[in-house]
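lol ok so funny story. i was supposed to be doing the assay writeup but got distracted and ended up predicting the structure for this chain instead. priorities right. anyway since i did it might as well share w the group, maybe its usefull for someone
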Amino acid sequence: MTRIGRSDLDILPLALGGNVFGWTADRDTSFAVLDAFRDGGGDFIDTADGYSAWVPGNSGGESETLIGEWLASRKPRDVVVATKVSTHPEFRGLRAANIRAAAEASVKRLGIDTIDLYYAHFDDADTPLEETVSAFADLVSDGLVRYVAVSNYTAARIREWISLAEAAGADLPVAVQPHYNLVHRAEVEQEIVPVADQYGMSLVPYYALASGFLTGKYRSTDAAGDSPRAEGAAKLATPAGLALIDALEEVGEAHGASIATTALAWLRAQPTVAAPIASASKVSQVADLLASASLELTPDEIARLTSASEPAQG
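and the output, tada:
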């Protein structure tokens, strides 16, 4: 178990991504994936109010609704739920009134009294940051949210948020959610990690498997038009990218672990990282994700993968 930042949220160091629920995973599959995750010891679920508004016929909130139905059906104990605000079609941006309305809608869809971890999903340049910080503080004071977090914020804006919160005596963010993995490292390691370390925040990285590239599934730059996600992953199948996959495979074989498990274990081992986020649209994918929470790579193995990733940065 690990703790998220300065909070009292103790979790298995892996977050199940809810972006696929209501998209590539229908209700039955979503329930099966959630069941497998919980049965395997997983207890941290990450979603957002905007998931999955991009799907034709969806309007946003589908992921939260499915998670809420699963929570009501299974009544699992000690599950930590994280969600986000700013991308739902009805609640775009981070004005105070919007944040309040979005949080209330998320709580209703999830069927819970309090959101454990609530992220500002994307920075809103059109709203004074002081207004956003104050709105999040009010949610905590009113019991709608336990802990505050930020996603996709620059280091400078995180510092500004913290300064405003400190001046107002408000709760500081306990987590940061950046795009971070073996093929996308530099900005996070140089800018976000130092801020997180200074203020006792944890990283909860998304795109932990680089849209599937770090599963070893894509060994050619030709994705044959499978999907936009597949095309994005296939673009990483350069000679340097494939050399990284080979290194992951060799390190994983020493532990009887898959490429995906090994990639997630490397990320979990990085400074300030509490729990990588990974999603599964099939039950068969869950075991490899869960295995990463207990796979302990040696310092030499971590160093080897770090070195192999340097030429593969995309």
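The first helix runs from residue 27 to 39. The longest strand covers residues 145-151.
back to the writeup now i swear
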